[in-house]
Write a structure and sequence with these properties.
By secondary structure, the chain is an alpha/beta fold. It has two domains: 195 residues, Rossmann fold; 141 residues, Rossmann fold (3-Layer(aba) Sandwich), CATH 3.40.50. It contains ten helices and twelve strands. The strands form two sheets. Strands 3-2-1-4-5-6-7 form a seven-stranded parallel beta sheet, with helices on both faces. A five-stranded parallel beta sheet has the order 10-9-8-11-12. Pfam families: Glyco_tran_28_C. This is Glycosyltransferase.
Length: 353
């Protein structure tokens, strides 16, 4: 195929990670002269509209997912909601098909959004999780995931092409038959040489009610660190801003440039071990302390793997305390020079091939 003239980029609205890692993809196609449109819903769509206010938008059906805070029921609730997501994906396909035809889209790039698909144009999907870490439900969820991925022309894995990879076994699964291509680390951030005048910055993300629980835990912990300069980025829209303390500043949400600057100014970052956050920290070469979303096997796997590699320590949300941060001296942090970013050499040829 020739280089695409009109690209439709569509992230899943599941936290903000899928949307944030689409930012460099959109920037790339715009730089190459392609027209880009965006399709999503909720906060994911809002993030991309804030970043790219001039792009055409297709609003899709809500993909909001609610979580249980209890282990076994966490996965059971997700699976039960999966049937609803399937129905919404079919509705999305109809919307996408009409949009593709009307606006002459010639490439679809979905980020784990299975409903953004068309048989009439090349449809690729960004996905680092070819197999799932979901306890008793690992096989069934991985099987369903692979079946959905195999509809697409290609699977683009956002990861470095060096060894060891960031995603580990998550990006390896024998039942995925669609061509799998590593495209480099996706991050909307770039390393800035700024003075590190913030001791701790916590960037909160993920679904409710777990996000709010994590926020309360951090506020309680940081309130006692009066000798430190602390920042909490709450990752919320349309909520009343919390009142700053002399040593603790709150932000509801920041655009990429603002958040990039704050994170680069921080000596230590505290965040979830979601894959998009891991890529951001790897890109910036930060010292980071991870707190996985409770019961989310992917995040727990990544946090355990990075601790084993002596890159970053982690704690469960329930047991997190600020004294745990003292363990950071035993870990290297990320080396950004070892992490090859999107697009890798040859990516242009892949698109035109």
């Amino acid at each position: 195929m020739d280089f695409p003239n009109h690209v439709l980029v569509s992230p899943l609205n599941w936290g903000l990670g899928h949307a944030s890692r689409c930012v460099p993809v959109i920037r790339y196609f715009l730089k190459q002269g392609s027209k880009v449109s965006i399709a999503s819903d909720g906060n994911a769509l809002q993030l991309l509209k804030d970043e790219f206010p001039d792009l055409d938008v297709l609003e899709l059906n809500s993909s909001n997912v609610t979580y249980s805070t209890f282990g076994f029921f966490f996965y059971l609730k997700l699976i039960l909601q999966g049937f609803g997501l399937q129905k919404r994906a079919l509705k999305d396909e109809k919307l996408v098909k009409a949009f593709v035809k009307k606006h002459k889209v010639d490439l679809i790039v979905a980020d784990h959004r299975f409903g953004t698909f068309s048989e009439n144009v090349k449809s690729v999907i960004i996905c680092h999780q070819l197999q799932f870490k979901a306890g008793l439900f690992s096989y069934s969820s991985s099987h369903f995931n692979a079946k959905s991925l195999n509809r697409f022309s290609e699977v683009w894995v956002p990861d470095t092409d060096t060894s060891p990879s960031l995603s580990g076994v998550l990006s390896q699964y024998h039942k995925v038959k669609a061509p799998v291509k590593t495209i480099g680390i996706l991050s909307r951030f770039s390393k800035l040489e700024l003075g590190e005048d913030i001791d701790y910055i916590a960037v909160i993300s993920g679904p409710e009610p777990l996000r709010t629980q994590f926020e309360k835990k951090l506020i309680q912990a940081f309130s006692n660190l009066k000798s430190k300069t602390c920042v909490i980025v709450r990752g919320v829209y349309d909520r009343e801003k919390l009142k700053d303390l002399p040593h603790l500043k709150f932000y509801n949400h920041l655009n990429s440039e603002e958040l990039n600057s704050l994170v680069c100014r921080a000596k230590v970052v505290i965040c979830r071990s979601g894959y998009s956050s891991v890529m951001d920290m790897a890109c910036l070469g930060k010292k980071v302390f991870f707190v996985p979303t409770p019961h989310q096997g992917e995040q727990e796997y990544l946090a355990e793997r990075l601790e084993h590699m002596k890159i970053a320590p982690f704690s469960s949300q329930e047991k997190f305390k600020t004294t745990d941060l003292e363990n950071l001296k035993f870990y290297s942090g990320f080396n950004s020079e070892e992490m090859h970013q999107f697009p890798l050499p040859g990516f242009l040829e892949t698109l035109e091939g």
